[in-house]
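Handout, page 2. Input:
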Amino acid sequence: MSSNPDRLVGRFTEAALIKRAKEVVEEKSKASTIFDEEAESQVPRFDKSECKLGRVLGRGGFCVVSEILHFNLEKHSPLDVTSTNGDALVDEEEDEFGELRYDGGVLVQDRQFMARRCLRKGKHARYAIKTLSDDCLKDPERFVGGVIDLAIESRFLAVIRHPNIIKMRGFGTSEICDVGFFLVLDRLYDTLTLKISQWKRDVEKTKGVGKLFDMKGKKKRKVWTDRLLVVYDLSTALEYLHSQNIAFLQQKPENVGFDVRGDVKIFDFGLARVMLVTFEEFPQGSLANDTYQMSGKTGSLRYMAPEGMIFNVKF
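Output:
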């Protein structure tokens, strides 16, 4: 949906709600020690009309995620920026999974690269787009929450670098708090919720009659090995976030995905917060000074801390 300042969302105009969202985003940005406008300026930008969308991959409280089938880039677009570090660029190859591999150098995924490599092996979408949902645009509270969520997530993903955290490859040309703003992310193919169900089925296959087909227990050990590897990778991702003084606040199976190779990825940083003291200092932190005021009823009910459900908690 395009921006319309005079459009009513409940009792409020769209312009009034966006103004409020901007105030919150600016307040959060000022308090952050890691947001980097220069890093954000290096992220490729796309016009929504350049993205040919495929099927919907998922819906959340504020946003909807769809796969991108291909990019129809405007010729000689001012959005196309040539890298000044040409010596670092290398030719890429696709591995057996359709992922990109290279020896040395830095593989820069600019607009032209993304248009050329939009599909893995010419068939499977490599990228996805995250936009505000239509339902979100009808409710004032969800409208403001969705705009803030998407804006804050873009600022986090512009600076976060870890193999087990989803990568943002681009975002929209509109203002960060505009209705038409969107993110371009790596496409994921599974969630931890689905993976847990698959593990349960695999374990059941090793019981009863299934033991006859797994006499040495290799299949059963593989299930446990796969689980432990996911736990380890998630731990390293969270350790990295904590080293950057970032509290994720949305850790749940639905926000853990897997790429085409089966590598685990954390995603959805709309509720993440930057802590103003280091995690090492936290045991002696500023609880007495009320440094951290976390909103009550924030996040998913099933995974919410009990005190967060009832109160506005001092964190």
